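re the bet — no i am not wrong, look at it urself. input seq straight from the record:
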Amino acid sequence: MQDIAQWAQPVVTVVSLAFGGGVLYGDVQEVKKAVEDNDKLEKQVVVMEQRLATAEEAQRATVIVLSKMTDTLNKLNNTVIKLEAKLEDK
């Protein structure tokens, strides 16, 4: 009986170590997958930040153009008012 116990103990130890190694390997694979997913998300964030920067620049340019158009329309309105005044004087 003692021989069986001496033989079984190393077998149980080896099986436990193998099982523990398998669990550890599975955990490592999950961590690797999570890191890969984070890399993909990081790349998406970079692309979104670039798109946001482009959109902000386009918005700034649009505001400038609209400001110039407003100035031009105000000048045109003033000119029309002056012309109407001159026509009324005649």
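see?? DSSP finds one helix and no strands in the chain. told u. also The longest helix spans residues 2-89. so pay up
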